[in-house]
Each structure stands twice: as C-alpha cells, then as structure tokens.
C-alpha cells in the first residue's frame, strides 16, 4: 500500500490558547508542525505536552516581521494563522501592533502560502459583526463595527485580513479558508487574560469578587475548545468550492449573569458579584448561525456548557495548586528574522 505523505503545517500563534490545542491535534494526526509565535500572549507552558515530540518545532518570531524562511521547511502543505491577541484588554494594550498583526502578519503568511502552494486558514472572529443588529449572525451579515472605537484595532484588523485573504483567493494566489470564531473557552486559557470565563472562574476559586461589566444582561455563546479545533480542521480540509467565511461557534446563548451563576454553583464559591462599568462598544448580543458549518463541514459543537465549564474549572484549580512552571525543554529554534 502507498504510504500517505506526512503533512507539513505552520501554525502562527501556536503558543496561544487555541493554537496549542491545534498543534496538539495536528501532531496527533501525524503531521509535522512548525509553531511561529512572538509569545505576546502565548505561553511556553501551554506547549509543555508537545516538548518531547520530534515532529514539533517552535520558532519565536513576530508575523509582522519578514518571516524566518531559514527555520521553515522547503515545503508547507497548510498554514493556519491564529496569531493575534484575542482578549479585549490584551489586544487593546498595543492597538497599533494588533492592527499590524492582522494586516501585515496575514499578508506575510498569505505570501508564504503562495510561495509554498499551501492552503491558508485565517482565524477571523465574530467581532467582524461588531455590536450586531442582526441576530443570530449569519455569514452574510455585514456587521456593525465602530471603526474609530477601542475595539477597532481588532475588529477592523480582522476585517482587513479577511479582505486580503479573499483577494489572494480571487487572484489565484492562494487557496484560503476563513473561520469566524465565536467566544471559545477551555483549559489553557490564561488566568490573567481578562476574558469573562477565565476571570469569573479564577475569581470564584479564589473567593474574590466576581466582576460583571454592566448589568450582566449582555449575551455570548460559548464554544468548548475541542469542538472549535475540530471545526477549524474540518474547514481546512474542506475540498468543495470556495466556501467563503464560515461561523464556528456554539449557538447556545446565555447572559453573562447566567454564566456567573453557573460558575458559582459549580465551584460552591461564596464570592460576591460586583458590577463594573460596561466597556465601550461591548456587543450586547452574540450568537452564531452555524447552518453553513453544519451543511458544508458536517460540524456542530458536541460539548454541553456544563461539561466544558467543569473541565475548565478543574484545569484552573489544578493551575492554582501548581508550583513554579517547570522549565520548558522545547525543541526550539530562536532566530533573528530573515
Ligand atoms: P491567544 O492570545 O491565546 O493566542 C494568540 C497567539 O498569537 C499567542 O500565542 C500570541 O503570543 C500570538 N501572537 C500575537 N501576535 C503575534 C504576532 N504579531 N506574531 C506572532 N505571534 C503573535 O488567543 P486565542 O484565544 O488562542 O486566539 C487565537 C486566534 O483565534 C486569534 O487570531 C483570535 O483572533 C481568534 N479568535 C479567538 C476567539 C476566542 O474566543 N478564543 C474568538 C474569535 C477569534
Ligand atoms: N465581562 C464581564 N466581566 C469580566 C470580563 C468580561 O462581565 O470580568 C463581559 C464583557 O464585558 C463582555 C463579556 O463578558 O460583555 C465577554 O467578554 P470577553 O472579554 O470574554 O469576550 P468578548 O467581549 O470579546 O466577547
């Protein structure tokens, strides 16, 4: 029998929350994986499980800079672009860098895909819909983004990245896939990333006040990480005609207050709930319409919120009990760009 060729894959942003799970899933499928990350929000500790795998290479570098061609293989089959801080306080800390990461970084990676003939997947976001006036959000909805507000560096950066990706596709320069990811949670989120799931769980576990921004009546739809990664990989492998952007998320919608109550009940925490000012341009409602993903990819999330939250609470509890992070012995390449 003919031996299947080993797939060679670059994951930009592979040291982050989603990226580390993706690298792991690709390795489990037998791929060789190169992870390019500037460690801005990613952590070496998230890669600990991959440390011993000879098929995994870590490259420290910024996608804004010329890509480190010498550290990459001669041929890549697939490029996933996950590079970009995703939590509002993190992407707003250096908005110029966030915008450039999406625009210049995506351009650099698209050109790399063109050079290698690799398929390119962009992790875009539900934030392209801004504070949506249509509900739930279908891929055809063009969004309601404030292009001058504090979220614009992320939202408009991702919109520009999508535009670039489809321009490369139209020009026949690269074959692209665009996933619009909705709020995703699970083990390996950073305790200090400022997102609602990580904040609420760590606050509940430590007996600190639970910070609810605004009245807590705003809604989100939370997808468990393993479901999300499955959706991304199916989209990358999709062989039909150009599918356009595809929503990947869990359509079960709940208010932030509902989420807080579930976490309090699950942890048995007696933390008080305190209301804080609602951040500017915070979307009021968000829920994906996933009909396209269901039809094209045969994909739907399978993990109920209670199961996913339980696993996430357990992971944060174990993290708190851990001593200093063990020193990584990663198979690493450090390079200057070029
Ligand atoms: P994360 O912050 O944990 O991971 C992002 C990774 O990209 C980090 O490892 C970070 O160090 C790296 N990075 C950032 N800027 C970079 C740059 N210029 N060069 C190289 N590396 C860089 O975020 P995440 O939750 O894992 O999100 C991954 C991707 O998915 C992001 O592109 C994000 O926009 C998208 N997304 C995530 C969610 C979610 O709920 N997690 C929702 C929508 C979209
Ligand atoms: N949020 C909150 N308390 C927190 C962190 C966030 O009430 O400690 C709210 C935030 O205002 C938003 C929702 O929870 O309405 C989701 O926030 P997150 O930053 O996780 O994601 P995003 O706003 O990007 O969807």
Automatic annotation (TrEMBL):
Pfam families xrefs: Epimerase
Bilayer topology:
Single-pass type II membrane protein
* Keyword field contains Repeat: no
Keywords, ordered alphabetically: Decarboxylase, Glycoprotein, Golgi apparatus, Lyase, Membrane, NAD, Signal-anchor, Transmembrane, Transmembrane helix
Query: A GO BP term, please?
Result: UDP-D-xylose biosynthetic process
Known cofactor(s): NAD(+)
InterPro entries noted in UniProt? Epimerase_deHydtase (IPR001509), NAD(P)-bd_dom_sf (IPR036291), UXS-like (IPR044516)
Q: Does the keyword Glycoprotein apply?
A: yes
- Top-level taxon: Bacteria
Q: What is its main location?
A: Golgi
SUPFAM superfamilies reported for this sequence:
NAD(P)-binding Rossmann-fold domains
Domain NAD-dependent epimerase/dehydratase as annotated: residue spans? 9-249
Q: Name one GO molecular function term.
A: UDP-glucuronate decarboxylase activity
Localization annotation: Golgi apparatus membrane; Golgi apparatus, Golgi stack membrane
Origin species: Teichococcus wenyumeiae
The protein in question is named NAD-dependent epimerase/dehydratase family protein
Which Gene Ontology cellular component terms are annotated? cytoplasm
């Amino acid at each position: 029998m003919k031996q299947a060729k080993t797939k060679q894959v670059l994951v930009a942003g592979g040291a982050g929350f989603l990226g580390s799970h993706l690298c792991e899933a690709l390795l489990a499928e037998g791929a060789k994986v190169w992870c390019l990350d500037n460690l801005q929000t990613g952590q070496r500790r998230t890669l600990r499980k991959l440390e011993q795998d000879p098929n995994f290479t870590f490259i420290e570098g910024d996608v804004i800079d010329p890509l480190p061609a010498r550290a990459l293989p001669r041929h890549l089959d697939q490029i996933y672009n996950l590079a970009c801080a995703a939590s509002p306080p993190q992407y707003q800390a250096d908005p110029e860098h966030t915008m450039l990461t999406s625009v210049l970084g995506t351009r650099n990676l698209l050109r790399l895909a063109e050079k290698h003939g690799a398929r390119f997947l962009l992790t875009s976001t539900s934030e392209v819909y801004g504070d949506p006036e249509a509900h739930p959000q279908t891929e055809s909805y063009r969004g309601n983004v404030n292009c001058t507000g504090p979220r614009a560096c992320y939202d408009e950066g991702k919109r520009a990245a999508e535009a670039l990706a489809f321009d490369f596709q139209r020009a026949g320069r690269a074959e692209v896939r665009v996933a619009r990811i909705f709020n995703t949670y699970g083990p390996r989120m950073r305790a200090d990333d400022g997102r609602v799931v990580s904040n609420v769980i760590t606050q509940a576990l430590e007996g600190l006040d639970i910070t609810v921004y605004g009245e807590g009546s705003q809604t989100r739809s939370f997808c468990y990480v393993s479901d999300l990664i499955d959706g991304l990989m199916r989209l990358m492998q999709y062989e039909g005609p150009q599918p356009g952007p595809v929503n990947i998320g869990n359509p079960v919608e709940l208010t932030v207050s509902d989420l807080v109550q579930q976490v309090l009940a699950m942890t048995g925490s007696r933390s008080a709930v305190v209301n804080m000012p609602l951040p500017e341009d915070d979307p009021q409602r968000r829920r994906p319409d996933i009909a396209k993903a269901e039809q094209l990819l045969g994909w739907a999330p399978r993990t109920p919120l209670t199961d996913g939250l339980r696993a996430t609470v357990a992971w944060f509890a174990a993290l708190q009990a851990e001593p200093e992070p063990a020193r990584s012995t990663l198979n690493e390449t450090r390079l200057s760009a070029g």
